[in-house]
């Protein structure tokens, strides 16, 4: 236990050299946690960053600094944090350059990517290199869905509004469906040309236009909801809930701090649930404090509040009684095959979520100039725990026996 507490203190205080055994275990957990992986294939300025911004709500600067090189021609972005990602984006940047060979990227991405999203600018028909790369990527895994995303629709109809209501819903069922005759002819011609050029290489077609609020369009995220629905359809069942819960949570939040904090809380909650599902008693007692401490540290950064070891002990004391009791009960029930893992996942996830929301409540109060009492924090924690436990069971019915 002393080694465990040392690991937690290092995590809280930002020590860059955490114990390698804990790091290896957490890295293994990340591979087991359901995280949708989207492979972005498209030329520069084809709308990939706008797509990532729409799905995550992150700012352009955060996205730009979040991507990390992973091959000679591609980069990786784990949102909201590499420690506990909810969504992962693989961006192939060299695809529009002569001589690009996708072999290295296929070897790196093929085992992990769930959906390929090909972004093509509506008015850009020089897509030969993109098509050539997609042919090889498609051949490597024909069962993996490919979405043809036609972007920047407004460039086909300058100074005209987007067609309203959104007229491309039929493409969700049939990507080669006839487009409505009422569409402006230039817009129809551009979409039809891209569908012809990529014939046989995609399963879904989603035209959309993600513009800035000051561009003057009535709907800046034109076709965005269709994109999300198509992704939910294309993703394997185990990964859909992550994207769905992220959307529901962020849509319901108004405060700027909380909108940034929720993806972090959900990411660490998902990892904690994976750790709690491990069928070996007491193993997650080592992992869970490290996961929750890292979450606390990240949330402190969001709110601009230093997370010291002393503050962590104070917060733990305020909500810790119920956590300790549930932890001991969870370990006991793990001796029951199958049922124990399900209960462990539920408790680990719910307690992590509740702790995250209680921390947000605490940090927000501190920003406003007062510190909540332990009784108030405890009440917030238990309310959030109850709600999270019910939601986790609803999202994972097979494990909620």
Give the class from helix and strand content and strand pairing.
Answer: alpha/beta
Binned, the helix content reads 40-55%
Q: Which oligomeric state applies?
A: single chain
* Name given to the CATH architecture of the largest domain: 3-Layer(aba) Sandwich
Task: Spell out the CATH superfamily of the largest domain.
Answer: P-loop containing nucleotide triphosphate hydrolases
Strand residue percentage: 5-15%
Q: CATH class of the largest domain, anyone?
A: Alpha Beta
CATH topology of the largest domain: Rossmann fold
Describe this structure in words.
- There is one protein chain.
- With 401 residues, the chain is α/β, with parallel strands linked by helices.
- It folds into two domains: 2-30 and 240-399, no CATH class; 37-234, Rossmann fold (3-Layer(aba) Sandwich).
- Helices cover 54% and strands 10% of the residues.
- Residues 40-150 form the G domain.
- Keywords: Membrane, Transmembrane, Transmembrane helix.
């Amino acid at each position: 236990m002393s080694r465990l507490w040392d690991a937690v203190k290092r995590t809280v205080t930002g020590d860059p050299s955490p114990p390698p055994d804990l790091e290896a275990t957490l890295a293994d957990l990340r591979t087991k946690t359901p995280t949708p992986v989207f492979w972005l294939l498209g030329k520069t300025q084809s709308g990939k960053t706008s797509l990532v911004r729409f799905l995550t709500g992150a700012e352009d600067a955060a996205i730009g600094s979040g991507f990390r090189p992973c091959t000679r021609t591609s980069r990786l972005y784990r949102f909201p944090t590499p420690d506990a990602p909810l969504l992962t984006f693989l961006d192939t940047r060299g695809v529009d350059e002569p001589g690009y060979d996708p072999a290295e990227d296929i070897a790196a991405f093929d085992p992990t990517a769930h959906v390929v999203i090909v972004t093509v600018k509506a008015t850009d028909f020089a897509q030969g290199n993109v098509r050539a790369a997609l042919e090889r990527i498609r051949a490597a895994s024909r069962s993996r869905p490919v979405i043809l995303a036609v972007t920047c629709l407004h460039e086909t109809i300058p100074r005209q509004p987007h067609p309203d209501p959104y007229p491309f819903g039929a493409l969700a069922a049939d990507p080669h469906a006839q487009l409505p005759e009422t569409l402006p002819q230039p817009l129809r011609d551009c979409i039809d040309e891209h569908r012809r050029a990529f014939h046989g290489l995609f399963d879904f077609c989603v035209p959309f236009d993600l513009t800035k609020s000051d561009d003057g369009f009535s709907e800046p995220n034109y076709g965005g909801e269709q994109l999300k629905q198509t992704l939910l359809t294309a993703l394997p069942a185990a990964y859909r809930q992550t994207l769905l819960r992220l959307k529901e949570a962020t849509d319901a939040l108004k405060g700027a701090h909380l909108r940034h904090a929720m993806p972090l809380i959900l990411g660490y909650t998902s990892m904690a649930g994976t750790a709690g599902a491990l069928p070996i008693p007491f193993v997650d007692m080592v992992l869970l404090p490290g996961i929750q401490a890292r979450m606390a540290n990240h949330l402190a950064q969001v709110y601009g509040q230093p997370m010291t070891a002393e503050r962590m002990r104070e917060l733990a004391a305020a909500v810790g009684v119920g956590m300790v009791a549930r932890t001991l009960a969870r370990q006991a029930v793990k001796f029951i095959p199958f049922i124990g893992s399900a209960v462990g996942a539920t408790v680990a996830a719910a307690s992590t979520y509740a702790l995250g929301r209680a921390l947000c409540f605490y940090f927000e109060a501190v920003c406003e100039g007062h510190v909540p009492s332990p009784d108030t924090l405890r009440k917030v924690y238990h309310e959030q725990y109850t709600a999270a436990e019910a939601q986790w069971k609803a999202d994972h019915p097979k494990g909620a026996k």
